[in-house]
Design a protein that fits this description.
- This protein is of the alpha/beta class.
- The strands form four sheets. Strands 3-4-5-8-9-10-11-12 form an eight-stranded parallel β-barrel, surrounded by six helices.
- The termini are far apart.
- The protein is 29% helix and 19% strand.
- Helix 1 runs antiparallel to helix 2 and helix 13 packs parallel to helix 15.
- Strand 10, helix 12 and strand 11 form a beta-alpha-beta unit.
- It comes from Dactylosporangium darangshiense.
- Keywords: Signal.
- This is Family 10 glycosylhydrolase.
- Pfam families: GHL10.
């Protein structure tokens, strides 16, 4: 039990990233919609080859278009300055240059999405009517960097044709002391909403317990509405591609301490058991956010990255063949229901365990999650544990992640991966990232189409090409949000680059090329060439 106790304490101290890291380590120590097209030879069949999505009609120099269709992302966390910025209080130029460094890494590794932590603890990385500026930027709670950081980040991300998913923690109110305000409301920024509404605040674990912090009470409807409004403000103001939550709704349990929401339960419980009421509170948040995002901007994707176990099959025959913490029972997150109700566009279970781990075997959880999303429209991406590479045991093998990505490819429902976190991808421990990138991310990829989002595939661009020695120079004009460049290689025309905007240029080795246009949902035009 000692490793689990230590892990829980560290979870509370470290926040989201440590929760991801430590819980899987503690478990290791405790060891006691329609289907989506399958990969063929590591590549997704290119969809949307013309305005009617007929891939058979798309040809480039007589060869069919071939582009991987998968989401490839990294999490960039700001809490505790784990990924970015490297420390609080940096000058604006350094804040910007560090962020551009993460984008350059994503481009280098042929990724197509970043998931940026913009609401770590009831705060914001944008000038907000609902929340103070995050302390992880300037080092001062409530003080901004002097420019609209969110707008700048999105512009730079889109300039590289990467998706920007805004990552929110809905109910966190503070980080543990001493780096955060801990359980002390008066230590929050003067304009923090919990100082204005102390009746919304919950302290958990209790004062005097390591990791004690403030939370918005999920059981108070007014608090839930305020939290939703504060996140939707970013959707309304900015051109985000997605709204993203991780696994923090109710706090992970600490010993035998119960979450102190008895007053709210008496007032709002409505005859449900406390556990069912808590689950219903979280379900309402997910359902309402799903509806409100689509009412505001139908093209914005909504996804959640939950703890990797819904329930164990020893508790529920429908559960996974695992023996670990259960999100349904322990943190009141009914993750399977969210998929079955199709409140989400995508789900990213955090499968931070090795293949063969007896408590939570990666090789058994991937097929279980694949079965959950089967016959729904919800896309399944896998949360990959890059941070674990180099640890003792199976993670001392640099090929562990390589094997996991190979296993993902065997299940047609798995349409992407997100890697935790950016600094681990950059560190490339044991050469593991270089290995899986060479094997699985050697070319660019287009994100998978979500057919239920707005579908406005543009017309083919007007393309001009010319020879320049041993190079071919392309210039095109079009009306898409972005463009894809294909080069004929053997019997296929393979994706070699993407560009933001309808107009663009590309220079490559001498050969036969075509260009397509894409809308913001990645629906593709016929090729020009």
């Amino acid at each position: 039990m000692l490793p689990i106790v230590i892990a829980i304490v560290l979870i509370l101290v470290g926040g989201v990233s440590v929760a991801r890291m430590v819980w899987s380590d503690a478990m290791s120590a405790s060891a006691g919609g329609p289907d989506i097209d399958r990969f063929g030879n590591g590549e997704r069949a290119n969809r949307a080859a013309d305005a009617r999505n007929d891939p058979q009609s798309a040809r480039c120099g007589g060869a069919p278009l071939s582009a991987p269709r998968e989401l490839r992302g990294i999490w960039i966390t700001t809490v505790e300055n784990i990924d970015w910025p490297s420390r609080p209080g940096l000058p604006a130029d350094q804040i910007k240059s560090e962020y551009i460094g993460w984008l350059d890494l994503a481009v280098q590794r042929n990724l197509n999405a970043v998931f940026v932590h913009v609401r770590p603890s009831g705060d914001a990385l944008w000038p907000s009517r609902y929340a103070p500026w995050s302390e992880w930027i300037t080092g001062v709670r409530g003080q901004g960097p002097g420019f609209d950081l969110m707008q700048w980040m999105i512009d730079e991300t889109h300039r590289r044709n990467l998706e920007f998913h805004a990552w929110f923690n809905p109910y966190r109110g503070s980080q543990p002391a001493p780096s955060g305000a801990g359980p002390d409301i008066n230590a929050l920024a003067p304009d923090h909403p919990l100082r204005q509404h102390p009746d919304w605040a919950v302290v958990y674990p209790s004062v005097g317990t390591t990791g004690s912090r403030l939370h918005f009470n999920p059981g108070i409807p007014e608090a839930r509405k305020f939290v939703e409004d504060s996140m939707l403000e970013a959707v309304e103001k900015y051109d985000v591609d997605g709204v993203h939550f991780d696994d923090f709704f109710y706090q992970y349990p600490v010993g035998k301490q119960d979450y102190p929401d008895e007053d709210a339960y008496r007032k709002y419980g409505g005859g449900l058991s406390k556990a069912d009421w808590r689950r219903d509170n979280v379900n309402k948040l997910v359902q309402e956010m799903s509806q409100r995002i689509k009412q505001l901007k139908p093209w914005v994707k909504f996804g959640i990255s939950p703890f990797g176990i819904w329930r164990n099959d020893g508790t529920d025959p429908s559960g996974s063949p695992t023996r670990g913490l259960q999100s349904y029972d322990d943190i009141y997150a009914d993750t399977r229901l969210w998929v079955r109700q199709q409140w989400l566009d995508y789900i990213v279970p955090q499968l931070y365990w090795n293949i063969g781990f007896d408590i939570a075997d990666y090789a058994k959880l991937v097929p279980w999650w694949s079965a959950v999303v089967k016959d729904t429209r919800v896309q399944l991406y896998i949360g990959q544990a890059d941070y674990r590479v180099g640890q003792s045991g199976p993670w001392s093998d640099p090929a562990e992640l390589d094997r996991q990505l190979a296993l993902n490819r065997k299940y047609p429902q798995v349409t992407g991966s997100i890697h935790f976190s950016a600094k681990s991808v950059r560190a490339d421990a044991l050469g593991s990232v270089s290995k899986y990138a060479a094997d699985f991310y050697s070319t660019p990829a287009l994100p998978p189409v979500m057919k239920w989002l707005p579908n406005r595939a543009p017309v083919a661009p007007a393309l001009r090409s010319r020879a320049d020695g041993d190079k071919t120079v392309l210039n095109w004009t079009g009306k898409g949000v972005s463009a894809a460049v294909y080069r004929v290689e053997g019997d296929k025309a393979k994706l070699v680059a993407t560009r933001r905007g309808g107009d663009g240029e590309f220079t490559g080795p001498k050969g036969t090329y075509c260009v397509t246009e894409l809308d913001r949902s990645w629906n593709e035009s016929p090729p020009s060439g």
